[in-house]
Amino acid sequence: MLPLLIAPQIREADAYTIAHEPIASIDLMERASKAFVGWFINHFPDKDQAISVYCGTGNNGGDGLAIARMLDDHQYKKINVKVARFSDKSTPDFNTNLERLKKTSISISEIHPGSGFPIEDCPLIIDALLGTGLNKPLEGDYKRLVDHLNSLDKTIVAVDVPTGFFADGEIPHGAGILKADLVITFQQPKINFLLPESGPYIKCWEAVNIGIDEHFVQSLHLPYLAVEEKDIRKMLKPRHRFSNKGTYGHTLIVAGQPETMGAALLSASACVYAGSGLTTACIPQSGLTALNAYMPEIMAIVRHDMQLPTIEWAKFSAIGIGPGLGKDELAVELITDVFTNYKKPLVIDADALNLLTIHRELWRSVPENSILTPHMKEFDRLFGDHGNWWQRIQTGIQKAREYAVFILLKNDYTIVISPAGKVYFNTTSNPAMAVGGMGDVLTGIISALLAQHYTPEEACILGAYLHGKAGDELALPNKINVILPSQVAARVPLTMAKLLA
Ligand SMILES: NC(=O)C1=CN([C@@H]2O[C@H](COP(=O)(O)OP(=O)(O)OC[C@H]3O[C@@H](n4cnc5c(N)ncnc54)[C@H](O)[C@@H]3O)[C@@H](O)[C@H]2O)[C@@H](O)CC1
Ligand SMILES: Nc1ncnc2c1ncn2[C@@H]1O[C@H](COP(=O)(O)OP(=O)(O)O)[C@@H](O)[C@H]1O
Ligand SMILES: [K+]
Question: Catalyses which reaction (predicted)?
């Protein structure tokens, strides 16, 4: 897992690396700038391109000065540097890099408080005004400069973070923030890059390694982590000889109404594809023909009108409940029945979440370590409205602990929050997956993983990763705009096979 540090911890880890590698702070800046330039050259190989580098007078500005010098060394010959002298303060590494830059032929100009802004005729701007040292929303000269740069419609590549963008914590409404086409960020994506609020400001980002001490970072036991492919490869268990369908569990999917049978079909079929040894769907009688025709591998427990079905609880190694279930009286009775009789962790999705919102008393019987899979609206219905995603995560941490459940908050970067307060960011999935029914497939996958004896934590992390990765494999190679949930479900075995190879 890649630990995601918040700004003060980034400073701490930088300082530790400087003291213990040991490396001089100016040399760490040199290393960071070199890593930036490596990526930059890949993206912008045209050395005749005119580039303006805007620098503040802190360490982000210091990076900008070093980057300008290095690009010059790489024969980018149309570079100029503009230093925003909005404060008397400057860092020692900024000063050293300014002296180094003065020894080159690069033109350096200054922007002063209250002055007008220089004419900008370069199509490409490198933003090294402010980085993770941002401590309040931009105002005054910085805000005016950022608004001005935003109005120019240039290509903007930000160093570490776009100026004015908070790396973590709440992003104030209406803050002046530079809109970057690309952010080349140091060591790790900043947490706010992974939240929807970054959408208007960051088109894409790349994290480059600058050699921050990894042992130190791991020793901090940080709550925020990004899931990496190597974690998934370690977690996934291959099937072994002499195993049989009983080895891989029996999953029950409680889902569907006559009008929303599709949700039950998607969820139960995803469960089969994700490797559940046996799958049974508890569905309304009117859906039985559809179920048998759609996937004969799935067995059925039929719900007759307003009558609770008989369920042999001990048969099932996992239960997923909610997709397309509806909110009528029978649904309430059914969810109560499941919560009362089944004591192992459940996967609770869609209408089952809505029922938890309406009938708060149901919370008392949610089995410990169950997995709730809300999207943003379901989350807010459950736990109250939130003005931003940072707040939503903090509420998630609190509620996961309070109810002893896992909360999988669906998003572009799906967030898994454990009762112990860990927050895992999933890095797979793409916008082609924004299609109704995609969440039903996820529920089926996670339920199947529980049935196969993955822990609830592993089932959440693996489930979100596999679901997104299957979607990525289908959509990304040909830049396909829309993929169907049923395609994602059917792709899961191949995705798993690749990860096990
Ligand atoms: N040794 C290190 O610590 C390293 C730092 N690096 C760079 O250093 C950056 C952080 O540098 P700094 O901590 O010097 O901070 P910044 O360069 O981000 O900001 C400079 C100063 O601006 C002031 N400031 C903050 N918010 C402001 C606002 N709203 N309006 C006006 N002024 C404001 C603060 O006093 C801050 O210290 C990183 O983003 C990264 O680019 C890299 O060189 C890697 C190594
Ligand atoms: N823009 C997107 N980028 C990445 N993943 C997405 C995007 N839109 C949707 N998804 C994924 O698709 C799923 C949608 O779930 P959900 O909203 O519950 O769908 P439904 O209720 O229709 O089944 C989630 O797993 C989510 O992560
Ligand atoms: K910046």
Answer: (6R)-NADPHX = (6S)-NADPHX; (6S)-NADHX + ADP = AMP + phosphate + NADH + H(+); (6S)-NADPHX + ADP = AMP + phosphate + NADPH + H(+); (6R)-NADHX = (6S)-NADHX
